[in-house]
Amino acid sequence: MSFGPRPTGLPSHFRASTHGSTSTQNSQTTALQARINEKKLELESLRQLRDLSAGLAGQMQQLEERLSTLSDGTEAVAAVMGNWANVLRAVGMASAGLPKPKATEDEMPLPQTLVRIPIQQAEAAAREIQKEEAAGKDG
Hints:
The chain is an all-alpha fold. It has one domain. It has two helices and no strands. It has helices spanning 12-96, 119-138. It is elongated. The mean pLDDT is 80. This is DASH complex subunit DAD2. Belongs to the DASH complex DAD2 family. Keywords: Cell cycle, Cell division, Centromere, Chromosome, Chromosome partition, Cytoplasm, Cytoskeleton, Kinetochore, Microtubule, Mitosis, Nucleus. Residues 1-31 are annotated as: Disordered. It is found in: Chromosome, Centromere, Kinetochore; Cytoplasm, Cytoskeleton, Spindle; Nucleus.
């Protein structure tokens, strides 16, 4: 009996399965690479989101500080406005006890001075401050 020449390569069904597994591996590798690229893009987006969120947090802190300052200023204005009623009442009481000047036809009567500032004390204090500054420069 004589046999024909033997094939030296792999049988055809092995070759087909090897080739099929290679194409399956290639498609899996392509799918994995696509998923990796997708995750890289997602990571980059998350990093940008983190950076933008940090910037927004900084701006919100600055806004908080400004609002705190504004709130303090508003409280001060409210206190001043609350005192105006008392100030006006005190001015009314002070002016009620003053004699009314007689108006002439040519002149309008001026209101009485309700606040008196002692100028002599202010001038003396200014001279002392000047002396202290001069002594500080010389010393």
